[in-house]
């Protein structure tokens, strides 16, 4: 009965073949291949919690008198957006948990994208034929950052409002087009006539997530089509993929991982406070609090802004605030262009136009690894610079010294990092036996008390661990015995 | 190596974790209670924990409070002599025997008893190390001794400077205090009162330790790099509203939602998100994945 109706569907849609390709997809088992999944699943958590929030959040700058659970705010005039966000935190059951889960998973989402991207970068997985997927990935990172900023602005509290104010100045600093862009987005001069919140809301919950979903589909589609890369190893060549099949092994693993990601997010949301907007108060354009920082994934932009000396270009009847333009427009512009273009920059530099399905070990590519370490260090330093005041306060040193420390360290330390990394990679490559599994030794004691060491004989369980036998469903072709490297392991030709 | 067999226990554990959290999370638990612990709602206004430091336990007579915010402590003349002895022992080496200042420390005459009370009761004075800015320490003198020193300094220029205010917050308005605080103080002390570094090597200290009296004294005297707010800038009522907000809300924040992470905002949150969130999940990857 089920069989015949399934066949009926398949006769018309012909999905069995595609479904089979999908179920047959081979996933390499190396742990670093799961990092992208953290991003995928925290995006799922973002969607879920986001839908919950949008049931209660009111995207309006309309002023109302607050009557809710947070007593110090009673009777004050606040925007509906702020009132409903505080309401989510105080009056809606599980509302605060959901708000915090949404925010924590945004932090985890972007963090895991960064880690995933680092894995792809350091192993050279972006090389031909996977340049497209790299570009798709960088675009998702960009959209994720943008959406995080948009969401952070929605509660209309003092801290996020200051962020919008800064964003407006950044837009305005762009020569010629800037003030028009600002007016266009804000529907007038800053702070606009309350139109910014509904606009950000639309972008945040619909347009940008939809773009991300589309790119995600493309990302995974390309992954299935081009198949995974893999590390060099026994039985692994440029022309095959070794790993677990989608069904049943990987399916079980990955579903478990979805639960674990959700659990970690909700553990954080339940135990660690994030963005307590009720303590910040409603945003008023004329108020400001010190120690205002954006979320960490925007921190590097803020840091660049902070350490920039105040330069200005005045001429031809225009003032170009270089102090904003350089760090907040040109700097991220360069960074993202380098991200996008990296596969092509590297291919041109190495003259390497071949197909690559096997990954590099980072130490085998000292220059690439050095460049990656340099970029990570640069990001870390600029991020550090976004907390100049917090650091100065924490270490009880003058703010100005911290500022000058970063002005020197931000350009200098990444360069040092590059050379040190290259050196380390070269040394590691030179060392003998490194990267190889050490065989166990057996220590013998002779009758006269003399000790000697002999390498042990290989036993099952040393080296590559044995796999459990996994029953192969009938509808997947069995692997010919001569291709199987072990029970349960599947191998397909590309 | 496929750790498929761990996936199911992990999934079970995780699900239990989620439901457990939903049930026991602070927000779910607190959602029913409409009375937060820190600020008890009373008819028409709010009740605060009665500040103990505001009512001197010793003999100084206070002029009868007419409303709140306008009454000051009058220090009896009998305080001056013991005050002088204490001053000679602990302060005169820097400020001079008659508090007129030396090359090492400023003139104190005319600053008023309130200013002296602030600097001594917060532990700033006597100065321990000459850093850019005197820091808050456990005070050296008890309340009576502090008032005696204040009386001595006051006697050098009677009738001038800021007296020691009597602070009674029972009628203060917390909401007004909140918006006045955001407007006047948050720019330096941050919106959560955690304090922050300022330009020029100074720093605005955390407001979590100051007593209501010290808050009013700071507002009126403007210690160090802090501006002085005269009664024209902030009326006595407004100053009391601010003190009430600092005492009632800033010092006892509504910290639902878990550990407060120090109230320093996204930098701390970012570290936790990356180290705990992403870090834990990477460990899980490492656990269920292959490690060669
Ligand atoms: C790339 C995906 C997303 C990211 C990075 C993201 C990030 C954020 C952040 C950081 C906040 C601020 C939270 C706070 O502390 O109050 C926020 C708020 C919000 N987000 Fe998202 N979000 C994403 C997707 C979504 C989706 C898909 C929806 C709706 C279906 C959504 C609905 C909301 C709503 C309604 C708020 C305001 C809630 C409040 O302020 O109380 N988000 N988002």
Key structural traits:
heterodimer; A: 494 residues; mainly alpha; Cytochrome Bc1 Complex, Chain C; three-stranded antiparallel sheet; two-stranded antiparallel sheet; 16 helices; 7% strand; B: 292 residues; Cytochrome Bc1 Complex, Chain D, domain 2; 11 helices; 6% strand; elongated; disordered N terminus; binds protoporphyrin IX containing FE
Give a quick rundown of the structure.
The complex is a heterodimer of chains A (494) and B (292). Chain A has 494 residues and is mainly alpha-helical.
Report the span from N to C terminus of chain B.
Answer: 10 Å
Name the chain pair with the biggest interface and residue counts per chain: A-B, 104 and 90 residues
Number of strands of chain B: 7
Radius of gyration of chain B: 25 Å
Query: At the first level of CATH, what is the class of the largest domain in chain B?
Result: Mainly Alpha
Count of discrete alpha- or pi-helical segments spanning 4 or more residues of chain B: 11
* CATH class type of the domain at 25-305 in chain A: Mainly Alpha
Low-confidence stretches of chain B: 1-5, 19-69
Q: Give the CATH H-level superfamily of the largest domain in chain B.
A: Cytochrome c-like domain
Fraction in beta strands of chain A: 5-15%
Q: CATH topology of the domain at 25-305 in chain A, which one?
A: Cytochrome Bc1 Complex, Chain C
Shape of chain B: elongated
Question: How is the biggest beta sheet of chain B arranged?
Answer: 3 strands, antiparallel
pLDDT averaged residue by residue of chain B? 74
Q: Assign the structural class of chain B, choosing from mainly alpha, mainly beta, alpha/beta, alpha+beta, or little secondary structure.
A: mainly alpha
């Amino acid at each position: 009965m089920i069989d015949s109706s399934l066949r009926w569907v398949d006769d018309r849609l012909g999905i069995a073949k595609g479904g089979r390709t999908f179920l047959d997809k081979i996933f390499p088992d190396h742990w670093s291949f799961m990092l992208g999944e953290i991003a995928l699943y925290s995006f799922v958590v973002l969607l879920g919690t986001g839908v919950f929030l949008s049931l209660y959040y009111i995207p309006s700058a309309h002023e109302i008198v607050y009557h809710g659970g947070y007593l110090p705010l009673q009777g004050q005039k606040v925007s509906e957006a702020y009132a409903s966000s505080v309401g989510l935190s105080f009056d809606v059951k599980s509302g605060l948990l959901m708000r915090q889960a949404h925010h924590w998973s945004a932090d985890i989402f972007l963090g895991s994208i960064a880690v995933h991207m680092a894995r792809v970068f350091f192993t050279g997985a972006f090389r031909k034929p996977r340049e497209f997927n790299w570009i798709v990935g960088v675009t998702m990172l960009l959209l994720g950052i943008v959406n995080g900023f948009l969401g952070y602005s929605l509660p209309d509290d003092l801290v996020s409002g200051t962020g919008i104010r800064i964003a407006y100045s950044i837009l305005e600093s762009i020569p010629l087009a800037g003030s028009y862009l600002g007016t266009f987005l804000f529907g007038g001069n800053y702070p606009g006539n309350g139109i910014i919140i509904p606009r950000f809301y639309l972008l945040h919950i619909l347009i940008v997530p939809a773009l991300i979903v589309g790119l995600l589909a493309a990302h995974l589609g390309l992954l299935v089509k081009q198949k995974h890369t893999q590390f060099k190893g026994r039985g692994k060549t440029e022309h095959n993929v070794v790993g677990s099949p989608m069904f049943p092994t990987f399916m079980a693993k990955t579903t478990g991982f979805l639960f674990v990601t959700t659990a970690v997010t909700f553990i954080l949301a339940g135990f660690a406070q994030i963005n307590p907007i009720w303590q910040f108060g409603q945003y008023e354009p004329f108020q400001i609090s010190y120690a205002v920082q954006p979320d960490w994934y925007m921190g590097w932009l803020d840091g660049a802004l902070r350490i920039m000396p105040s330069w200005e270009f005045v001429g031809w009847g225009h003032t170009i605030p270089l102090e904003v333009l350089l760090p907040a427009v040109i700097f991220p512009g360069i960074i993202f262009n380098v991200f996008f273009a990296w596969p092509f920059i590297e291919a041109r530099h190495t003259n390497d136009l071949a197909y690559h399905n096997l990954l590099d070990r980072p130490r085998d590519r000292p220059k690439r690894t050095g460049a990656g370490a340099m970029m990570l260090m640069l990001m870390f330093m600029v991020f550090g610079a976004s907390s100049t005041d917090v650091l100065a306060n924490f270490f009880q040193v003058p703010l100005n010294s911290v500022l000058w420390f970063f002005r020197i360290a931000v350009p200098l330390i990444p360069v040092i990092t590059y050379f040190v990394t290259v050196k380390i990679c070269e040394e590691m490559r030179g060392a003998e036996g490194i990267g190889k599994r050490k065989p166990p030794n057996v220590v013998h004691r002779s009758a006269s008390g003399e000790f000697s060491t002999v390498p042990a004989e290989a036993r099952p369980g040393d080296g590559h661990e044995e796999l459990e036998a996994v029953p192969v469903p009938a509808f997947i072709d069995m692997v010919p015995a001569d291709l199987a490297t072990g029970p349960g392991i599947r191998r397909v030709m590309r | 190596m496929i750790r498929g067999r761990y996936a199911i226990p992990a999934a079970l554990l995780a699900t239990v974790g989620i439901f457990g959290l939903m049930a026991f999370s602070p927000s779910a638990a607190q959602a029913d209670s409409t009375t937060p612990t820190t600020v008890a709602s009373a008819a028409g206004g709010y009740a605060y924990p009665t500040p103990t430091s505001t009512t001197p336990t010793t003999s100084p007579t206070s002029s009868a409070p007419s409303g709140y915010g306008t009454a000051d402590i009058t220090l009896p003349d009998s305080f001056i002599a013991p005050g002088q002895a204490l001053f000679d022992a602990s302060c005169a080496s820097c400020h001079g025997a008659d508090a007129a200042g030396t090359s090492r420390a400023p003139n104190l005459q005319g600053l008023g008893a309130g200013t002296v009370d602030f600097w001594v009761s917060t532990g700033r004075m006597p100065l321990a190390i000459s850093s850019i800015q005197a820091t808050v320490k456990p005070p050296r003198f008890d309340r009576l001794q502090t008032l005696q020193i204040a009386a001595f300094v006051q006697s050098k220029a009677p009738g001038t400077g800021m007296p020691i205010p009597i602070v009674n917050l029972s009628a203060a308005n917390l909401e007004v205090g909140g918006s006045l605080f955001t407007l006047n103080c948050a720019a330096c002390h941050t919106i959560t009162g955690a304090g922050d570094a300022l330009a020029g090597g100074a720093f605005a200290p955390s407001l979590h330790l100051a007593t209501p009296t010290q808050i009013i004294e700071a507002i009126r005297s403007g210690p160090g790099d802090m501006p002085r707010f005269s009664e024209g800038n902030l009326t006595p009522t407004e100053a009391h509203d601010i003190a009430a907000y600092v005492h009632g809300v800033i010092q006892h924040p509504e910290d639902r939602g878990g550990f407060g992470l120090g109230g320093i905002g996204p930098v701390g949150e970012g570290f936790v998100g990356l180290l705990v969130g992403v870090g834990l999940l990477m460990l899980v990857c490492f656990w269920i994945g292959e490690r060669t």
